Amino acid sequence: MQPILKIFVPVLASIVAYYLFRTIRWGLSRIPSPLSLPGPPNPGWFFGHQKEIWSKSTPLGEPTLMDEWHEMYGPTFKAGGFFGGYRIYSMDIKVVQHIMRNDDIYLKPPVMRNLLNMILGEGTGVIVAEGAQHRLQRKAMNPAFGPSQIREFTKTFFHKSIEMRDIWKAQIANEGVGEIDPVEWLSKVTVDIIGLTGFNYHLNALNDGQTNALNEAFKTMFHSSGWDSPWMPLIAALPKSIQSIIKTLALACGVDTAMKSSVDCIQRSCRQLLMENKAQLVATGEKDIGSGSRNLLSLLLKSNMSPDTPAHARMSDADVMAQIPTFLIAGHDTTSLATNWALLELSLHQDIQAKLQEELLSVPTATPSMDELNGLPLLDGFVRETLRLHSPITTLGRIAVQDDIIPLAHPFTDSDGTVHDKLPVRKGQLIHLTLHQVNTDKSLWGPHADRFRPDRWLNLPDSARTIPGAYSNTLSFWGGSHGCMGWRFTSIEMKVLIFVLLRSFHFELAVQKDELMVLKMASIWQRPSLKSEPLQTRLPLVVKLLKNE
């Protein structure tokens, strides 16, 4: 997407100007500025603070931009949006609880839905759907993410984790030690896992010599999509008709053809997978989908095609098909990122690595069950702490579809000196919940909330138990009716990866700690990076083979 952004900036600017001319007066009359909330001064009318928020790197261990603003302006503040508007940012626990409970009032912003639809195509994936459509999809998909199914998937988690471990062993076999950057490898192994568990498809990402078109299409799409560009939310905010004009002009000039080819390939593959799984399900009489095909897509189709499911409650083929890229996007990036952070924390905290390694090596089997993994207290606390401190999603945006009043746990003082314990919100107001800051709020987690301490899970503060998260009293997977269904999938997959790797290797940093950066992408994802390569996801580690290996 980056070339199109450079070539069509003048075209885009003209379209935006025209679009604003028609709508800005209407928009401003319907969406007034928030109350006189505290906040940083707006640096400019066009981008506001969004360019800074969208993509910014921070040295590891230092306060992020949101940390600094919350410290300066309080748990709830305003920051500049596009075209002179303002957005509300909050880490207030009552704001979180209110928005989570009232998900019929606070919906995903059109910008977010448009960005996701660029990949998902015509159908509506569960991470895009709202209202009755979302409830229908969750009801159909919930069984696929239950304990019994994840218990079955654990075998695949181990199979692929061991395959990656053996590749690493071969790389350092001569010296018994070597430098490995796990970023690409963890992305590959989690892609392979979601391919098999999601729709029984061998993506072969770990085997470069046997890769396939679908895997290559996803790689191209993510590498060329320009998610870290501040222009992306602006393009996504435009009407679909204008987005279509931009895409048409780009393709006519030979720009971004790789992106279109990738999306087309993904859509073709998804359609084929849907047809194959439906045919297999029909052939087995909807009774036995076979041990080799008990995947998320088959389970979803079985539920959707069941005679017990009334016609009005069934998902369309387009919506079922949209779940395939949804599985791939949500299913691999979340786990791979979290496991990178886990390996970083192990490298930084050698004492924790030693204790955890001792626990894992004491397990008599190389492939324990899901229940056996969950019974390892140090591993459980380590995974919970990694996901708390390095939340896959750091910020969650919602837009109010009607006027509302939100209660506040922490009142704010406006510019006139008046104290407010409630926040009036007008229809159309954008609110961003800073999930990472809730996960590290000292008023909830104690004075060492910003430190990596897995043992905190042995005696969790009562205040932290008020966090209404889907997983482990954190907001790492959000919560409520829109909470991520895949939290169990991710946590067990992480445990398997760490179990396999830590029983074979010892990890240390290959660079000085002060060289490490936290790369913020698309305003919500955190990735490890280096000062010398600030725009790349990097984590060079020294990997040593254990003596027992």
UniProtKB/TrEMBL annotation:
Give the residues the record marks as binding heme.
484
Pathway assignment: Secondary metabolite biosynthesis; terpenoid biosynthesis
**Compartment(s) where it occurs, according to its Swiss-Prot or TrEMBL record:** Membrane
* Assigned keywords, A-Z: Heme, Iron, Membrane, Metal-binding, Monooxygenase, Oxidoreductase, Transmembrane, Transmembrane helix
Major localisation: membrane
Any GO CC annotation of this UniProt entry: membrane
Give the molecular function GO annotations.
heme binding; iron ion binding; monooxygenase activity; oxidoreductase activity, acting on paired donors, with incorporation or reduction of molecular oxygen
User: What cofactor does this protein call for?
Assistant: heme
Is Calcium included in the keywords of this UniProt record?
A: no
Q: Which residues cross the membrane?
A: 7-28
- Name the protein family: Belongs to the cytochrome P450 family.
The record, for PANTHER family, names: CYTOCHROME P450, CYTOCHROME P450 12A4, MITOCHONDRIAL-RELATED
Protein's recorded name: Cytochrome P450
What is the source species?
Lentinula aff. detonsa
